[in-house]
Write a structure and sequence with these properties.
The chain is mostly helical. The protein is built from 3 helices and no strands. The model has no long low-confidence stretch (mean pLDDT 91).
Length: 140
């Protein structure tokens, strides 16, 4: 016999050992498969949860964008109203200044006329013609 050749009586023993090792390896692989299947189920559940959350957040983002666009339209409208209101306010202020200046001018003219009337009534000719005014029925 050659030294590399196993004894024919040992061959069934070696085959049994290899068969046992193969069965052990198969059991280890089945255990690994079962563990991987559990992890795979957990990962699939997490992936489903993440996808659901992603869809929800995308919907929320779309809603937020819609709200932002609506608010931008309202903001632009309010900005236009503010511009128009500011223009009207400036026009009203200008009219108020004109009216105030006109009223002040009228007040000044009234004061001047009252002063002139007092001077006229204090004059000698006014006093001398008082009897004529009394005949006319004017009590002044």
């Amino acid at each position: 016999m050659k030294p590399d050749q196993p004894d024919p009586a040992e061959i069934p023993q070696r085959v049994r050992q290899q068969l046992i090792l193969a069965q052990v390896r198969i059991m280890e692989l089945e255990d690994a498969r079962d563990a991987a299947a559990g992890r795979l189920a957990e990962i699939e559940r997490l992936l489903h949860t993440a996808q659901t959350l992603t869809d929800q957040k995308l919907d929320e983002a779309a809603q937020a964008e819609k709200v932002r666009a609506d608010l931008q339209v309202q903001f632009d409208h309010l900005r236009q109203l503010q511009t128009a209101t500011s223009a009207l306010l400036e026009a009203a202020r200008a009219r108020l200044e004109e009216t105030t200046a006109g009223a002040a001018a009228h007040q000044l003219r009234v004061a001047e006329l009252e002063t002139e009337l007092r001077k006229l009534k204090a004059s000698r000719s006014w006093r001398w013609t008082a009897w004529l005014r009394a005949l006319g029925g004017n009590p002044s």
